[in-house]
């Protein structure tokens, strides 16, 4: 998948990436955990438990691709994709805080759109209603196709997928 952002590249997740993946996951939960009053140890235990549950759930996806996002060789996030017959499903897209709001997420999504278009697939993603990324997804052309309570199911048709 070609990404139109200088220095941005993808590589497969390896067994050596576990601590990195936990750090990325933790960064997505920091704001939510801040008001709990938990100790750092309690937060670390909670994150480890939640990460393991998420990791097991994501590992069950058929035809999935688990990738680390790197910028100039430094890991900055993860993107997990599921390749279905008619849909490219973005299972997860998470960037570390230092990599957010720099256009990297947009570039990754546009690369997914191009990949979907080249194979005649729509692009699909789930997002929590309070996730700030929702505005980015809507701005880039995703449409809400289902309200699942906490989550919204979004889809972006590609020119090829619409034909």
UniProtKB/TrEMBL annotation:
The keyword NADP does not apply. CDD domains: NAT_SF. One of its GO terms (cellular component) is ribosome. Gene3D superfamilies: 3.40.630.30. It comes from the Bacteria. Residues 8-160 form the N-acetyltransferase domain. One of its GO terms (molecular function) is acyltransferase activity, transferring groups other than amino-acyl groups. InterPro entries: Acyl_CoA_acyltransferase (IPR016181), GNAT_dom (IPR000182). Keywords: Acyltransferase, Ribonucleoprotein, Ribosomal protein, Transferase. The keyword tRNA-binding does not apply. PANTHER family: PEPTIDYL-LYSINE N-ACETYLTRANSFERASE YJAB. This is Ribosomal protein S18 acetylase RimI. It comes from Andreprevotia lacus DSM 23236. The lineage of its organism: Bacteria, Pseudomonadati, Pseudomonadota, Betaproteobacteria, Neisseriales.
